[in-house]
Amino acid sequence: MNFASDNAGGVHPRIMAALAAANEGHVPSYGEDSITRAAQDRLRELFDAPQAAVHFVATGTAANALSLSLLAPGWGKVFCHADAHVQTSETGAPEFMTGGAKLVPVPGAGGKITPETLAEALVVHGRDSVHAGRNAALTLTNATEWGTVYTPAEVEALAAVARDAGLGLHMDGARFANALAGLDVAPADLTWRAGVDILSLGGTKNGCMAVEAVVIFDPAKSEEFQFRRKRAGALLSKHRFLAAQVLAWLEGDLWLQLARHANAMAHELALGLARLPGVRIDQRVESNAVFATIPADLHRRAGASGICYHLWPHTQQPAEDEPVGIRLVCGWDTRLEDVTATLRALA
């Protein structure tokens, strides 16, 4: 009963089969193969963006850091939510890959930046000068670290503020499929039509082994990305094994089916937890994560029952009898039986 992370799950059988099929024979390396070209074309078609540049990397950190390096020089400022993965969990990779750009954390309830909080941050931190640096980029996480989801209208409103301030717009889509499945909108509506310049599209958390697609809606930046990816050591020679995952993931809308399932399991888990005495659901469930505060005795019972989750925030050190904040994440392979068994053990 593991709800620690959607990284903890395995690889979907169809994707594993695609990897085995791609293992046959010899093909050109470094992305010059037909499987990579097919995966790139499929993503262009999916996003209704025939001119977009599409490149693959193996990790979300590489996707985010390299994407931001296209938008921000070393003297630039990148505005992000205070809880964003780029701010809390990437060990300075964005700063490193940009050559020193400064991340400017922006507060916001539920992991979301609003046009108002962004505008306020621009007033406080956004002065362009040789002393303060240059406004360069805004990065949004969708779905957010709090499991909330930006709608197309919300992205568009933030893009308007960013554009007026001269900021490029990047979207960290490590859980983009979960956001899309929750909204039931077209991929283009949540990205370039709403003003997104670059998307880091995550597959690893949603049934793939290890692949993220960087979708650059301005193809003029494609060559620079390729040089940066190589210099960063993030260009895989056996590139077909990245692309094969993407093709299988997208085939028959598997990626959305898996995301819908993960989201549904999170809703079931939250409904059951809310019925337990002393439990408070802290955030409306909009994707595949549940955030709750539970009594200390329930926390101890969960540990004794082998139920895995993370404390949220990670830094909390509650006293023995104090309530505990937790995060539970459902994945593509979370079973309803796991949810039911968890709730039964806690009850």
UniProtKB/TrEMBL annotation:
InterPro entries: ArAA_b-elim_lyase/Thr_aldolase (IPR001597), Low_specificity_L-TA_bact (IPR026273), PyrdxlP-dep_Trfase (IPR015424), PyrdxlP-dep_Trfase_major (IPR015421), PyrdxlP-dep_Trfase_small (IPR015422). Homotetramer. It holds the Pfam family Beta_elim_lyase. Its EC number is 4.1.2.48. GO terms for molecular function: L-allo-threonine aldolase activity. It comes from the Bacteria. Coiled coil: none annotated. GO terms for biological process: L-threonine catabolic process. It catalyses: L-allo-threonine = acetaldehyde + glycine; L-threonine = acetaldehyde + glycine. SUPFAM superfamilies: PLP-dependent transferases. It is an enzyme of class 4 (lyase). Catalyzes the cleavage of L-allo-threonine and L-threonine to glycine and acetaldehyde. Keywords: Lyase, Pyridoxal phosphate. Belongs to the threonine aldolase family. The keyword Secreted does not apply. Its cofactor is pyridoxal 5'-phosphate. It comes from Paracoccus thiocyanatus. This is L-threonine aldolase. Residues 3-293 form the Aromatic amino acid beta-eliminating lyase/threonine aldolase domain.
